[in-house]
Give the backbone structure.
Amino acid sequence: MEEQLKQIAQWIATSKRIIVFTGAGLSTESGIPDFRSPGGVWDKYNPEDFYFQNFLASEISREKYWQMATEMYGPIKKAEPNPAHLAISELEKLGKLDCVITQNIDGLHLKAGNSEEKVIQLHGTALYVSCLSCHQKYDRDEIQERIKKGERAPLCESCGGLLKPATISFGQSMPEKETQEAYHRSSLSDLFIVIGSSLVVQPAASMPLVAKRNGAKLVIINRDPTSCDHMADLIIHAQAGPTMVSVLRYVKQGLEMANKRDN
Ligand code: NAD
C-alpha cells in the first residue's frame, strides 16, 4: 500500500492537468451517508421517489420528495470537510489541481477551501433551492424555515412555480455548461483521480473513460470495487481520508526534496 501511495504522489508531482473526481464516498467521513453502502440512502428510501418525472407529476410526490430532502439536508447542513476534502484543497494551493469534478451536492469542497472556479458541481447543490419555472434562487435555510412552519411542497414567491433543491434528480437534465466543461477538462487531463464513487451514475461515470482514452493515468481510491476498476492504472480499496492524508504527505515531501535540489 505504501508503495502505491508514493506512486500516486509521484504522478501528482509530474502531471500537469490533474483532475480529482469525487462522489458520495468522499463525504461519508463527514457524516453524510452515500447512496449504495449498507445504511446508505437506498436502504431507507425507494429510488423512484427521487425521479424528476414523479416530482413534476403530483403534489403527493412533491410532498414526499420534500420530506426526504428535508431529512437528508440535516447531515449536509451540519457537515464539516474531512481530511480528504482538506487534502484536495491543499492540492489546489500547491498548484497541483486543474479542477475537481464532483457528483456531490454538499458543498464541502468549497467549504474546505477550493475556489469556485476549480469546482465543477455536476449534480448541483443542496445549499440552494430554485424555481423550476422562473429559476429564481433561494437560500435553502429560508425554504426549510417555511417547511418547518407547515408548507409541505413550497412554491415560488415570484411566479408560483414549483420549488426544488438545486440538485439534479434522476431523469432531470444535466446542467449543460458544467457537463460540457467537465467532459472537456477530462479529455485534456493527464492524471484523473477518482475518490469515493461507485462510478455507476451516468453521465458522470463516463468521465474517467474519456480521460483514460485521451491518455490520462487513472487512479481510483474507493472502499469497494467500482465499475471502472478494470481500466485503472492504480486502485486503492481504502478509506478516502487516511489515504489522501498519506498521499499529500508524500507529495509535500517530494516537493521539498525537489526544492532542496534546485537551491
Ligand atoms: P455511491 O453511493 O454510488 O458510491 C459511493 C462509493 O463510495 C461506494 O462505492 C463506497 O464503497 C465508497 N465509499 C463510501 N465511503 C467511503 C470512504 N470513506 N472512503 C472511500 N470510499 C468510500 O455514490 P456516487 O458514486 O457518488 O453516486 C451516487 C449519487 O449520489 C451521486 O449522483 C451524488 O450526487 C449523490 N449523493 C451525494 C451525496 C453528497 O453530496 N455527499 C450523498 C449521497 C448521494
